[in-house]
Hints:
By secondary structure, this protein is an all-alpha fold. The chain folds into 3 domains: 1-43, no CATH class; 54-235, Orthogonal Bundle (MetI-like fold); 243-283. Helix content is 81%, strand content 0%. It has 12 helices and no strands. The chain has helices at residues 2-26, 45-51, 54-87, 90-105, 108-125, 134-158, 163-171, 176-187, 189-205, 208-213, 220-230, 234-282. The protein is globular. The model has no long low-confidence stretch (mean pLDDT 84).
Amino acid sequence: MRAMVGAYMVVFFGYLFGPLAVMGVTAFNTAPYPTVMPFEAFTLDWFRILFNDKDMTLGLQNSIKIGLIVVAISVPCGLAGAIVMQQVYARARSFYYLVVVSPVLTPGVIIGISTVIFWRDFTGATDTRFLYDGIALAALGQSSFISAYCMLIFLSRLQRFDRALEEAGLDLGANNAQVFRHILIPFLRPAFLSASVLAFLSSFENYNTTTFAILSEKTLTTVLAGRVRQGTTPAISALAVTIIAVTVGGAIVYELLKRREDARKAAELRTAQATERREMAGA
């Protein structure tokens, strides 16, 4: 049994990390086609070629721009949807949940096409054709289902929220806006960070919705799709290595900041407990 479990773990992690390892090797190989063996010589030229690629650079800039717009739209919409979910009548909650989560179940192709058709007719009828832009349409199309992901994150956090804190704030004279700003928002701060990261990454790697809503613009995923159809090069492996390095670096920074915050809270708790013990001893 132990041998079977060990073999399974080797196969599982090999399947999971094998392609990443291959990309990591091919990004530094001088061969003109992505290959691990034979390893001709070590080089960084593929990273230089990648950074000098205008289409890839423009696609990356557009992907980052769309991702930030999606975060600005999806996180507030997800928060609003989660708060409404907590306040609607119990009988209507199932129907409301079905409505707000339905975009997640809709194929991305349908969302992309419907986004283009709706905003083409809307901007034409309202004489706001300047809004009919590929980047704006891609952000709106992605936000329609990414907002549901954000809502689920906020819902999971709100399930642990003690509503007595809100009632106490209202009893002490605070209005609803003050309770929301000083009680609910600090409690939801971890959910804000998680929802923002999830929204940005979901937007960054999205292809199905983006390829129909982007119009004449291009994102990193659409550029990569075109390059792969033409024949891949080690420059794409260099891009994969760069993205992995940024992702791992961000995860490490987040973990360090989280540990620092946990240590600070633990120190504050120990200080409060020591103060309480001294007060009890003095009494």
